[in-house]
Amino acid sequence: MLAEQTLQEEIRKKFFITLVVGDDDYYYIIALMVAYLYHENKSENGCSADELLELAEGYSIKKILTLGKRAAGCVDGRNARVICPAEYQ
Question: Residue 10, class by beta-carbon neighbours within 10 Å (0-12 exposed, 13-18 middle, 19+ buried)?
C-alpha cells in the first residue's frame, strides 16, 4: 500500500514537471482551465480558444488574458496539445 502511494506521488511529481518550468506555469494554468471546462460541460470534444478566453475573463486570469486570442488559439484543447509558433512558446 505504501509503495503504491509512493509510486503515485512520483508520477504526480513527474507530471507537474511537464506543466511548470521555472516561473512558466502557462501549461499548468491551461491544463486546469481545460479540466474545469470538461468537468462543467462534460464535453468529449475538448474546448476552443474562445472558451478558454471566456473562462479567463470570468475568473480574471490575467496571465492568460495577456496572451490574447491569437496565442490562446495555439492551444488545441480537443487534443490536449500546444500548437504555437515559436514566438509564443
Answer: exposed
